[in-house]
Design brief:
- By secondary structure, this protein is mainly beta.
- The protein contains no helices and 11 strands.
- The strands form 2 sheets. Strands 2, 4, 5, 6, 9, 10 and 11 form a 7-stranded mixed beta sheet that branches. It has a 4-stranded antiparallel beta sheet with strand order 1-3-8-7, with no helix packed on it.
- A hairpin with a 4-residue loop joins strand 7 and strand 8.
């Protein structure tokens, strides 16, 4: 029942691709920033990619050139296209939404597991 719900994770071989989706509730207003984070076992959660309300994107150095963040405003959905996957990309991937509304400022999805085998 989450207002932010990720999907698309799974098991893939090294060099393969996956596309993650984040469905955002239309009840969330005044969104100004959306992004993908990931947390590998034993590691801290880190920012992977983000996209502003205006469409500007930013990527972590580790995924730059391999991952692409995008969104479909008509579907209220954000995507993360992951290509040339490496074992070190293995992590739980989380969708994050930031809103300027007073009711709630930050929304997190439940996470979706991505496992890349050698």
């Amino acid at each position: 029942q989450g207002e932010v719900v990720e999907s698309g994770g799974g098991l893939v071989q090294s060099g393969g691709s996956l596309r993650l989706s984040c469905a955002v509730s239309r009840n969330i207003f005044s969104i100004y920033l959306m992004g993908w984070y990931r947390q590998a076992a034993g590691n801290q959660r880190e920012l992977v990619a983000q996209i502003t309300n205006g469409g500007s994107t930013q990527y972590s150095d580790s995924v730059k050139g391999r991952f692409t963040i995008s969104r479909d405003n008509a579907k209220n959905t954000m995507y993360l296209q992951m290509n040339s996957l490496k074992p070190e990309d293995t992590a739980v991937y989380y969708c994050n939404v930031k809103s300027s509304a007073a009711s709630r400022l930050v929304y997190w999805g439940q996470g979706t597991q991505v496992t890349v085998s050698s």
